[in-house]
Amino acid sequence: MPEPAIRASNITRNYGDRRALNGFSLEVPSGSTFGLLGPNGSGKSTFIAMVAAMETPAEGSLEIFGQPPARELRGQIATVFQENSADPLMGVAEYLRFAGQLFGLGGELSERIPELLARFGLAERGSDPVSSLSGGMRRRLEVARALLHHPRLLLLDEPTTGIDADERALLWETLRSANAGLTILLATNDLAEADAVCDTVAFVQAGTVVVSGTPATLKANLRRESVRIGWESPSESDLAQVASWPGTGEITRDGDLVAVTTDDSATFVPRLFELAPGAIRSIVIATASLEDAYFQHVRRRQEAAPK
Amino acid sequence: MSTAAVIARRDLMAVVRSRSQLYSSMFTPLLFLVFLGNGVSAGLEPSNLPDGNFTAYLVAGVVAMTAVFSSTFSSASYYRDRDSGLLRLLLSSPAHPRTLLFGKSLSALVIGTIQGIVVLAVAAPFVDFQWQYGIAQGFLIAIAAIVLLNLMLTGIAQAMASRIQTMQGFHLLMNLALFPLLFFSGAFFPVDGLPTWLEVLAYANPLTYAVDALELAAYASSDATFIGLGVDFVVLGALSLAVYLLGLARTPKLTYSGS
Q: Do B92 and A89 touch (CB under 8 A)?
């Protein structure tokens, strides 16, 4: 079995009194696209910073390609940060040249920069200032910058935040055709995106990996269908009754929104209207998604956590 | 090209692109020289200056002031880089933080030195310099003093900028630390003849030796009433190198803040 690209074991890290990572463990297979999913402040960015050797674990062990994180390994790693890192006053190609030289590239940049600009749809913008690019173009520029030095490991910290669906699709399409064998660690809040692009995902909450696996495996533990119910003030007894119905899986509640997984919505929905006539405001039925799995694992833990 | 040189070039380009910073940093010292120099010369006619003309005397002080401003503004590029996000890229690169610091200090050194030389060169034809060592030699001595002065101030500014969280805090501390040094350096009035306690402060002030060397190089007709080039360059050279290397020796506190 090939060595994992990242192996984290029982990592902890505090910022003052706040514990950012708390027994954080996972393995990212080489060549895979691995998603870290969790709410803001759950520790995703801290872990990414550790993999990039920009933070150090207080406890536990972390290996990147079998070695502890070190500055020397950064030539094999690239990070796309949540915020843009391009100086808006620099030119697009100038920024890429600067970044390439920071990572030790020289003459090959003359070919590499036009190649990446073309691949990311920025060929016409090479001499324009970064400040003239749209939000989506800037994100593409960030990813192009990250791929300049042919990294083996690409760290993406919410790379598609704030860009539209077309830009997002284009970005992923281009990434898929990027370096062969590239390992991608993606930190995101976007469950649909992770479901679409990740081979493996880990749900992170309060600095701990709650569960990990392939999206298919995580969804397999759910019932076949997901029913999202707009339910006005559901009582605990009503919810308990729903839970007792045959074929009902996980139930999660967020105010007046109740999410239920079930084997058979055709039977489930009429029973629901019988149980709470007049209180059901809306119903959406869908095939169970990664979001349902996320609700099952993370929301339940959040609700169970001491306030 | 080395990483430090890449960073230095980028910072230099940022200053060149920032027209307002470029022009104001060039014209402010010259305006200072024209208005303050001529105003004080005409109004007060300071008679205790070694060689009379106050505007000519003030040139060295304005060059020193330019170095103070330049090192401060150039070193503040940390904050611009942090705000634009570029600092994250720098810190995620294989370069050691000290290399980053060195690259940034190089650009600050180049900018400060060029500005000092420009102020001196623009002022020289219009003021009554004595050039006691000859014009060419005097210019070379002045350039050496300007380089060492900028080396020292850049070392101080870089060390502060890489450790202070806010740009406001950085400017406040730089003003607090450097302006008193500027006032008691002979930049605006001769050290000789000050009350004893101020004279002691002035001789303990490293800027005094830079200003003295600059006055001797261009303004003065003799070494009398000045400290002397030998002492100036020994003190300035030793302090500049020590401060600069000390500033680079400690790893800067520039960190990625994760969530």
A: no
